[in-house]
Every structure is written in C-alpha cells, then in structure tokens.
C-alpha cells in the first residue's frame, strides 16, 4: 500500500482550513529564502563576522535545503504525511527561534542548516497534499492557491525583511516565523487526518551521491562570484564533485533494485518537460526579483520602504491572475493560458529594458503588474499539466524533484545575473569613459573642467559614468531574461492536455 498522500482524492473534513494551515507553513519556508538577505549587513557586527563570512548564513540554508528536498518522498512513505508535516513545521519554527537568539556566526550557521533541513520538505509536501485533497475538477483552483504562496514569498520577502530589520532589528527576521509556525502546526494537527505508511528501504548510497551533486552545485553557484568563477580551483572542485556525484547517482539508479529515485517517472513526457520548463521559470523569476532591490536602492536612491511599495504591485498582479486562472482552468486549453502568461512576462521584460536613471516609479509599477499577472497564468496551469499524467505512486517524489529543479534554476539564475551585472558594469564603464577623451567635442562644451584636471569635476563625471554603466548592465540583464523566457515557450506545446485518468485513481472508502 502506498502512503496516502502519494494517492489522490484523500478525504478530509475541513479542506479549506487544512489548505490555510498548509499554505502558512509553505509561505513561512519560502519567505526565509529571501527575507534574511537584507539583514546580512546588520548581522555582521552583531555576530562578529566579516563581509565574506556572513554570506554563509545564506549558503548554509540553501545547501541544506537543496540536499534534503529529495528526501520528501521517502519520508512520506516511512512517517506518513501528517507526522512529517508536524515534525517539519515544529523543527522549522524551533530553529527559527534559535536563529533569532544566536550570539555567534557558528551558532547561526548551524541553526540555518537546521532550518534548511526541516523546511526542505514543506513546499513539495504541501504541493502533493493539495493535489491529493482536491478532486480533479478543482485542481486548477487548488494549484492557484499553492502558486500564490510560492510566488508571493520571494516578492514580499525582501520588503518584509527590510521593514523588520529597520524598525525592530535583524533578529525579528527569524522571530516573525514563530506565530506563523504555531498557527500552521495547530492547523495541521487539527485538520489533517492520519495517513498510513509503508516500508521502503532507504538507499543511502543513492541519496549520498545525489546530495553530493546538489550540494557541490549549490556551493559553486553561491561562492562562484566571490572566488572568481572558473579562475578559481575551488570552483573546479565543485564542478568535479557535482558531475561525478550525478553520474554515479544515475548509474546506480539504473542498476539498483530499489533506487532512491525511480527514474521511470522521467519517462512521463509531461513531467520531464515540466521540470525543464520550471527550471527556466525559476531561472528568470527569482533572478529578476534579485535585480530590482539593488537597482532601486543603490542606483535610483529609493529607501527600503519605498522599494517595497514600488514592488508590491507585482504581488497584486499575481494575486489577481491566480483568481482569474483558477476559474479558467478546465474551460480553456491550459497551454493557451501558459502562452498568454509567457507573452505578458516577455512584454514585462521588454518594458524593463527601457529603464533609465531619470524615470519615475511608474515604469517599475506597470512592468511589475504585467509580470506578476503573467506569472500567475504560467505557474498554475503548468503545474497542473506537469502532474496531469504522472502516476500517483510517483507524486511525492515528483513534487520533491519539481521543487528541487525550481530551486536549482533560481540559484543558477541569481548567479548568472550577479556575474553578468558585475562584468557588464566594468565593461560599460570602460567604454563610456573612453568617449570622454580630449578629442570629445561634448567634453569641451559641457565639462571643460575635466580637461583642466579639476578633481571635483572628475569625481562627479566618474560618478555619472558609473551610474550609467550600471543602468546599462541592468538593462542587459533584463534582455537576457527576456531571451531565456522566450526560449522556454516552445516547451509548452510538447505537453499533452488530455489527462490519463488511470494515473490518478480514486481511493476506495476503506483506504481513506
């Protein structure tokens, strides 16, 4: 017998309240991927860490979460979804409290590892649970609820983190999880039924190889910019470990009797194409979000609160689209909905390539609303299509792989845009400065003090050149994200719309 939440149509007495509890836990976990970023400078002095050392507060969480995510399916089978939820929520909430009272860097890194380990299962477990407690005709609305939590977390995180850090102190970035975690824990305990378990051998070797591959990849992505990417032996060590671990893992799974991950689930075309697509969406969505706060604060001079207000309409657009797409699912070909959403997202990136240093807030607001509205149309129907034909017995493992690939894509995307931004700022600065020589008519007319060696004028001109070089670099990154998004569009039409009902049988009453 498979675990209940790897089976569809689990009957619950209070589906709405259970969904609220599940989404509270999910939002809490997703928020923590971004909420601590803005608090890092404030942690440095308090924890006695250097600028380079404090980044391990982020790295430790990301790596621990990535390694633990694939464990979700096995843990569901062995513990049951209800018990696993309770353990994960309690552990994440408790480790958040420990992070909030940490007194040194070593303690903080340890507690962030604990946060990552407990939180890793929350997102995939929430997705599989929501799929299982809703009948097929409500699947679109159910995915709309899940998608809202997944996509609003990264949008709200930096703003909430900045407000808490400025007004209450960096410790409240972690302590804010306590009331949310307690409510989620009580909700799951009260409304989620007990679920049966099954014996499943733990393939330690397979898990170790997959963990090695994922952990090394995440370390490379997080540390690459700081150590100089391919110019550093550290990067090549990570690359070698990641490739070796993945190769051994695949060979082992193909030959083992009970592998850690059953590779047969990748034979489902919808699922495989869904993983490829969500990788690209993770790459563009989170990297685009990572670019906006530094652009608004460092380049345009917006304070943290104003930055949050300027980015808030993006979340409003997402919420509106979730409501609309939930009602359209089942009535309109989901591939058309995804295509419409992709077109809006591409249009938003195109608007963002027109940003300049003299603009007001409205281009940011309108492009944000358009992108948020488009992403709602992308995430909900595509998540539904990805699992529409996947056998129910693979659902727990499938949702964990879905979350893992999305997180790897976001990590890669952030690394790409960070690296491109740094390199393009330097390149653009050099090119713009080369046009300010003694033979430039504009220099003679507008800034003659530059030719006379006036240091004040030279500093002012250099500041303007740096500002323009940075804006061009941001625009280049937005164009790159546009290209990535456009390249992913053909994947949509490789999916099958007609679901295989045999893949999602209903449980007979005796097994609920």
From TrEMBL:
Compartments, record wording: Cell membrane
Keyword Transmembrane helix listed: yes
Stored InterPro entries: EmrB-like (IPR004638), MFS (IPR011701), MFS_dom (IPR020846), MFS_trans_sf (IPR036259)
UniProt keyword list: Cell membrane, Membrane, Transmembrane, Transmembrane helix, Transport
Primary site of residence: membrane
Transmembrane segments: 12-31, 54-76, 83-103, 109-131, 143-164, 170-192, 204-221, 236-254, 275-296, 302-324, 336-353, 373-392, 404-426, 478-497
Similarity remark: Belongs to the major facilitator superfamily. EmrB family.
Name of the protein in its database record: DHA2 family efflux MFS transporter permease subunit
Organism in which the protein naturally occurs: Pararhodobacter zhoushanensis
